[in-house]
Amino acid sequence: MRRPRSEPAEQPPAQEDLLLAAAYVSDAQYNRNVPFETSPRAIRLYCFYNHWTLRVATYIFICVDLSLALFEEPAVYPLPFLATATVEILCLTVFFGRLMHFAKVTPQIVFWKDTKNICILVTIGLTLLDLIIYGSLEAAHIHSVRWSRALRPFFLINLPESRQVRRALRSIRNTLPDILYVFLLFMFSVLVFSLMALKLFGDRGLKTAEGSPYLTNILEIAFELYVLVTTANSPDVMMPAYDFNGWYSLFFIAYIIINTYIFMSVFLAVVYNNYRKHLKNEIRKLVYLKRYKMIEAFNILKVQVGVEFVVQEATWKRLARLVVPDLSTSHLELLWKISDEGQKGHVDRMNFLRLADLLNIQVVTVSIKKHPLDIWMPRIYQSSASLLVQRMVRHRVFVWVYDVIILLNAVFIALDEKSPIISRMEWLFLSLYIAEILLKLYTYEPRAYFGRRQFWNWFDVLIVIAALVATVANATIHSARKYNSQQILDIVLILRILRLLRVIISIQRFRVIVTTLINIGPTMLTFGGLVFVVYYMFAIIGMEVFQGKVHFYDANFTAPDALLCGNPALKGSAFARARYCKNNFNHLASAFLVLTELTVVNQWHVIAGGFALVTHQAAKLYFIVFHIVVVILIVNIFIAFVLEAFFVAYSLEKSEIETAIEKKIQELGVGIQEEEEQDEKPTANLSAKDGGFSEEDEGVERKASKGLYCRIASNKYRTVDALLQRMFESELAPDDDGPSLDEILSFSPSDMYLKNPNFESSA
Amino acid sequence: MRRPRSEPAEQPPAQEDLLLAAAYVSDAQYNRNVPFETSPRAIRLYCFYNHWTLRVATYIFICVDLSLALFEEPAVYPLPFLATATVEILCLTVFFGRLMHFAKVTPQIVFWKDTKNICILVTIGLTLLDLIIYGSLEAAHIHSVRWSRALRPFFLINLPESRQVRRALRSIRNTLPDILYVFLLFMFSVLVFSLMALKLFGDRGLKTAEGSPYLTNILEIAFELYVLVTTANSPDVMMPAYDFNGWYSLFFIAYIIINTYIFMSVFLAVVYNNYRKHLKNEIRKLVYLKRYKMIEAFNILKVQVGVEFVVQEATWKRLARLVVPDLSTSHLELLWKISDEGQKGHVDRMNFLRLADLLNIQVVTVSIKKHPLDIWMPRIYQSSASLLVQRMVRHRVFVWVYDVIILLNAVFIALDEKSPIISRMEWLFLSLYIAEILLKLYTYEPRAYFGRRQFWNWFDVLIVIAALVATVANATIHSARKYNSQQILDIVLILRILRLLRVIISIQRFRVIVTTLINIGPTMLTFGGLVFVVYYMFAIIGMEVFQGKVHFYDANFTAPDALLCGNPALKGSAFARARYCKNNFNHLASAFLVLTELTVVNQWHVIAGGFALVTHQAAKLYFIVFHIVVVILIVNIFIAFVLEAFFVAYSLEKSEIETAIEKKIQELGVGIQEEEEQDEKPTANLSAKDGGFSEEDEGVERKASKGLYCRIASNKYRTVDALLQRMFESELAPDDDGPSLDEILSFSPSDMYLKNPNFESSA
């Protein structure tokens, strides 16, 4: 992949060399790992391929393609087949174009070796085939199945942009071999217990609470006992035997201890163990690949000065501008100051390798602005009464008073709002909130108060305005029509109650927990993506199999079988008795809700039983497979992820990790530590001392001068990944070349321990 | 605690010095940490205090005291108050005597500083007080409450023997401060959602499936939403709102994601994190205390030889005999050989410190015996036909054939056994099993086959005999009376099916999982103890509050309120509809079963609702508190324990830890590695190559000579504790004196990282 280089000389590098180096640096910056051709044309194509507009466009088309399921039969909003088919073909064309673009960029061998690309091609082909078959059958008025719809999530998974979702899927795949034997042993145990149950209870003639025969058929027993593992039918499945003879409860207790407690814990342990192992391996791969790319870039641009190879200032700056076109001059100068040790006018290899990380560091503009009122009418704003108000607002008692007001408000919300006094109180609270915001705007600089990161201030103001609008609207149209636009009023109502959340900010311990949860947030979205993919596939299959079998009739509908969900097969079933008619697969939204209920586990056997009654007993397999995939695998990986995130945060608390860059920035005195000087700063004029997020800007004013600063996110990494990556990087020697590309790509978790014992054990 | 010592001289140490050293060594051997007086009389008393008969007697009296609840009102087997009171006073006397014995042994200040002792004294006093009050009221025919019964588990917890249970309780207590804030935030979130639910659904006039009003009261909503966190009422609690308007499902989905998934994972993370932290701190304490005691013992016995202090051979051997009186001479000689480096006739400090570990190492007698038949009629036994049979039995195909037979048997068990062919097949299987055992006894040496550790062989033979007896009994009395003695036949039936478990042994991967689980077993019993203590307390309270409120009537009983559990308040309740009448607190066994069902969580709100109906809504608090204590705390600690056990086993796999002793034993060539040469050893005559446990003895025959060997349990530690202890010990320098006693006792988890960074991160 490395193109042959001419001898380094003192002349500036050619534009194509710079472009190639910029592509490497940009890949390192965003952790992209796509091998690309190094011809100038391919590089230009590659830069275009990575342009954000194309990436966003691809995502939009994926969303459109996936959302087609809302409009195809069974549809939420039905559209004719021709319309959906046209949109689908358009999407397929876009995906194919994107793939062809990628094929132009990457070497041929690499392209055809990558299963991702093959997978997309095959999916496009299959979808087209399905469209043609379905279309022609439809034309002949023969109903058939749009089976290729279940393949649509493959586009989401396999496009290079969904690296995170793919990784989550990979951790599931990696876990499978280890979990398989535990699962087989678990199934063996369930079967042995089923046999025992058959022998113990089969010919006792016992009846369940519903009067049906109790545990007489081995398949039914196996299903009931599998359900017992999920605890969904405990203790009902035990009661008839227990009523018959107290000692039989021991059978069920033994079963629950072995299968529910021990086996389920072992599943979690195996999944967690694998997750940890492979997570660290992937991080190591990422770090080495990043370093590999930066070394490539350096080798392209280096010139010899004295005995060492370096990159000249001009080259370095042109490169930085190529990688980040909208870099301001002052920002660039700051980065150069950090990189150029000893003001030599060039950077050595070690400092060059930092470039990718440098470009990722946030730079903030610090400027202390005066309050507009102070400029317009300084005499009044600086008067002693005005200063008293300002001091009052800045005092912590002000925050406490408003906490009390919020709590009082909560009590009034809880009380019946129909009595006139309470609805008048609502006006009082509203005016208090508005007064609070006005006072704050008076005290703090408004542009700082509504700064980009002042999340809680925005939140506050929006909710107060929403509540104001809601109360006014409610009062004016109250007598005319009760609940005019129900949904909007509901949302406003919820927003008003959400205001109570501001109490969290006043309690330090709560803020810490919430901040941790918010930091984990972005990675949790990966799980959202994973769950979405699995749900989508199961939903499409479920819709094809179960659509129209169960109908929901409005509560006021008086048809004789409304209570049986329009299907006489449900007569006397637990499904009909629990009024689960709306839990059906009649359209995508409804199917997603059913799958959510199945994920929560409780009563899943009732839903499974209902759909088995209206189709066939084998339908239960669909629900069992869903349980295994989602609850045993994905939910456990989710728990593993949360555990790991907490432990990494915990071990970071104990031992501060500082990368080379951070040390350098600290030395230069241009860094801002987050959470530095968190308490009491009454003279701060640029930061509203108000929200959990605002404190990040507070360390700034210790520098009186206006200027650029680097923000170092100490202790507050956005993702577990970034954190682990830093931990691993802090262990690497700065002049370590790392293994070769082939070695990196074939890393496996088992050879990890020997090479990086500390990293392995520390996380 | 260290008594003043005279100058070391060449004369043998006095008997009292030896006794004191033996007490220290014995404490180190069993990890006992009781400070005792060092006067000769106190030491003798202390040895007597630690004697196994006294310990067992104490345990028996604790069991008797706890089991009194079975005989007191509400009783399983009622006894008059006078009888139970007499037994209880007897038990109290024994506990008091034991405590006084302890007071004689330990220094006064230490005794009164220890909350354990105070706790026992107070509990004894309170129990006596309660007995007197209850007895006198009973004499006046006034019914009162035996409240002190809930305190009985304190005896179990606080006696020095229950160290493990106390530690588990301690980890709960340590977790509380950290978990408290998460819990408060969680409750805040539940309340905010409750408020929203009230506003959104309160005045819609919706009805639940049972026709009762839906979410109209804030307390009721908070309870329902708390139940939703446990998933027990999902999706029922959502259905009315969802039926009314599909968008309302978003409210419940948001609730479940935040409270069930995220908060519950955070609870697990916090509990696990604390568990790990404190576990390692305790291990460190144990290891240092052990070393401290061994150094004390050394200082008592040391004599100066040249420049170094040593312990003479005669002293060392007398000491070992004092610590383990039934030590055989050959065993002692072997230990001496390991300790005495360079055959100098004395041991230095480093080797002396090993003594406690040495005494804990298993020593096996290895002797190769000839088969009795080989002795009685060698000609026939060594004939080619006989040898062929033996070779056949030893072949692995023999095992496989029997696996197939067992699976076939499983199929036949599953089929209806009433048809005559199948019941005749049962005889065939039985004879095949008997043939297998006879063949094995013919091939392997019978005493080895029925050796102490041949668990699976014993299991096998017992089950075959049981099945034989059962089948014979069944056949003879079948026509006369069907199901003569039901319970015995049931047990035999289960045993017959348990035979299927032998299939596990044939599959290597299954065996590994089962072995791991069995190794974790003993420590799991600690959790059993903890759960028992909590259950007992809750059961006693529950019995006092709920006894007699709900009655179970036999299914054939035709009283009008049999279906209402004899309580009209239950009319129309979910409790009565689900026929939960037998889930009551009318005696201890029944109460324990209800608590088990509450631990499994599902339907707990139905049980709570039922008991709230027959008493008061506040009764739900009892069930909520139980859920928080058992499910949120104890079950999470259990999961944390299983996870940790797996990870420790996993990290041990990667890095072999060898303590000094093991290295020494290996050097001397007197060690037996477990699982060494596991496969195929057709000439082995002493070990039945048959079971998962038998393989432990197989490495033996590589030494042709008869003799004693040390068994080293590599990779197969019985407990996580022992394992962690070894890991920590392997890091300690052999000549490290360790911190002083006071420092050890005040160890805290936070100062751990600085002192032992590797140990901290490795586990």
Helix content estimate of chain A: 55-70%
Low-confidence stretches of chain A: 1-9, 673-706, 713-717, 753-763
How much is the radius of gyration of chain A in Å? 32 Å
Report the average pLDDT across residues of chain A.
79
Report on the architecture of this protein.
The structure is a homodimer of 763-residue chains. The first copy, chain A, has 763 residues and is mainly alpha-helical. The N terminus and C terminus of chain A are likely disordered. Chains A and B meet through helix 8, helix 10, helix 11, helix 19 and helix 23 of A and helix 8, helix 10, helix 11, helix 19 and helix 23 of B.
Question: How are the secondary structure elements laid out?
Answer:
2 copies of one chain form a homodimer.
Chain A: H1 15-30, H2 40-49, H3 52-67, H4 81-105, H5 108-113, H6 115-139, H7 153-158, H8 163-201, H9 218-229, H10 239-244, H11 249-301, E1 303-305, E2 308-312, H12 313-323, H13 329-339, E3 346-348, H14 349-353, H15 355-360, E4 362-366, H16 372-376, H17 378-381, H18 384-394, H19 396-414, H20 420-443, H21 446-449, H22 455-477, H23 486-498, H24 502-506, H25 508-546, H26 574-577, H27 588-600, H28 604-614, H29 620-654, H30 660-668, E5 671-673, E6 707-712, H31 720-729, H32 741-745, H33 752-755, H34 757-762
Helix pairs in contact in A: 1-2, 1-11, 1-12, 2-4, 3-4, 4-6, 8-9, 8-11, 8-25, 11-29, 11-31, 18-20, 19-20, 20-22, 22-23, 25-27, 25-29, 27-29
